Amino acid sequence: MRKLIVVPARLSSTRLKEKPLKVLAGKPLIRWVVEGCLKTGEEVLLATDSERIASVVKDLPVKVVYTPAELPSGSDRVAYAVKEEDVDYVINYQGDEPFVYPEDVSRLFNALEDFPVATLAMKDQKTYRDPASVKVVLAKDGTALYFSRSPIPFFVNTSSKIYPLKHVGIYAFRKEVLMEFTRWERGELEKRESLEQLRLLENGVKIKVLLTQNYYHGVDTQEDAKLVSEILLKSFTK
Q1: Where are the domains of the chain?
Q2: Less packed terminus of the chain by CB within 10 Å, N or C?
Q3: pLDDT score, position 1
């Protein structure tokens, strides 16, 4: 049983210019992500369209696969990178998620024994109305019913025991499901919300959502970069 963490990173980004190269707390963002993934003890591969990004981690024990810049999502980039790899389980660890926890990586891989896809979510009321923060609602078995940038679920009764869940954009796939994902056309929901995981739900694939108490914060804007830099300085550079 071979497992692999793939970090997709493209140079172009809409909200933060050359995001993977953005320096946070003294290191480029992509360096934080790759180093964190290596600390899990798993095999790590960088999937990128840029030699400049690859050069940031050239001294690390990481395989680099160059991918076309026009691929529509991180998971499409991951699939391209592993199509020739003899691997069973793959984690798409997005290149803008600098916080990595070995226990969550282990839980994601373990979830693939029972589910075709798995991901993470955390309790977070602060970002409930923020469209940049993706929310998820769950079925009774802990699988995703829907992901949205809108504030879901709507609270008619504020005393409800249901709480907002912020999705953490890290995905674990069985390889065969990942490859099938890339053969499907982007559906209307994925296009409208700009959320690649909706392609899976639209095609009937169950996504197990694991709740975590660890802190995650992706970097999409300059404000994110400032906040994450401060946290990294406090937590990881002591």
Answers
A1: 3-236
A2: C
A3: 87
Give the tens place of pLDDT for each residue, 33-73.
999 999 999 999 999 999 999 999 999 999 999 999 888 88
* Band of residue 236 on the pLDDT scale cut at 50, 70, 90: low
The pair of three-digit structure tokens given for residue 238, joined into one six-digit string: 């002591």
Predicted pLDDT of residue 158: 64
How many Cβ atoms sit within 10 Å of the Cβ of residue 140?
6
State how beta strands 117-123 and 165-174 pair.
antiparallel
**What does 13-69 look like in DSSP terms, one character per residue?**
-SSSTTGGG-EETTEEHHHHHHHHHHTTTS-EEEEES-HHHHHHTTTSS-EEEE--T
Full DSSP string of 146-210:
EEESS--S--SSTT-S---EEEEEEEEEEHHHHHHHHHSPP-HHHHHHT-THHHHHHTT--EEEE
Sequence-separated (6 or more) residues with CB below 8 Å from residue 125: 163, 164
pTM beyond cutoff 0.90: yes
Instruction: Pull the structure tokens for residue 148.
Output: 């949205």
